[in-house]
Efflux RND transporter periplasmic adaptor subunit (Methylocystis heyeri), 362 residues
Amino acid sequence: MQRLFSLFAPLLTAALAAAALGGCDSKPRAADRAPDRPALVSIIHFAPQSRAREFTAAIRPRIESDLGFRVAGKVVRRLVEVGQRVKAGAILAALDDADLKLQKEQADAEYAASNVVQMQTTADETRAARLKQQGWTAQAALDRAHAAAQEARSRNQRAARAVELARNSLDYAVLRADADGVVTQTSIEPGQVVAAGAPAVRIARDGEMEAAVALPESYANAAGEGEARLFLWSRPDKTYRAKLRELSPSADPATRNFAARFSILDPDPAISLGMSATLVIAGRSETPAIGVPLSALFNQGEGAGLWRVDAEGGLSLIPVSVLRYEADRAIVSGPLEEGDKYVVLGVQKLDPAQRVRVIVQN
């Protein structure tokens, strides 16, 4: 037995050594055959970035006026309702005019009395002038007659103006529309006592209509620099061009928004007062930049970067500047070229020493 072992021992040793050498040679060949890490990549395309903002708008008239009585009194009639169309001169409401009629009668009576006094003093002046010419009276008497006649004429003129004021006040007891339009609000009811000038009926005039919006502080100054388009909620397929006409100089104390009015440049009959709409404002074109998915950004505290892939699958981390973040992407700029490939997913697992197998994102 010992003789057999001594005979086969050299052969067994040689076999084990060959197996060991074969195992050492197989490891580098397996590494050489290992496939590269697959990487989903996208191609860089530069484009001018035009940031669009959307705001909820309401269709409002260009001119909307609060009409009120020019005299105080008690409301006896209101002849219009909200939504009613009115013509210029139509009666909207009326006050109790009993006292105003009495004032008119009083002014008429005073005017009639002043006419009598004026006629008497004018006759006295004429007579005094004739007697002075004939030498039968003194200059002082003529002067007194002239002064009395002048005073009577002034009183008569004042009484005539009082009649006109009383007539106007009586006419002001009836509130009339000053233009064609639609009643959008009423603030009075029969039996209510109103002060002169208090808002009674609001009328939206026919004519130009606008989109009223509230703009945030960060966007108010740039609202007029971009192209504005309007979409009605009832007709989202129709687009209307708009232009900033008015921007409030101060913000609302509660919301801190700025009220703005945009004129509708190409209105049609489909637009009605009170409709809801969306106003889209496209900002000015900026420096060409790249829109990349948020998952493509790699940042370890030294700034954002993108993994660029070369033609052989090599990786290089390119630092970029983030211009702004949007809902699902970031707008960046950096030392990249049109057509470069960058990794979209799994960027936190990559290393510059790795090589990747490119899978282009559709």
Summary: The chain is about 30% helix and 35% strand. The helical segments are 2-33, 98-134, 139-172, 217-220. Confidence is low (pLDDT under 50) at residues 1-9, 14-31.
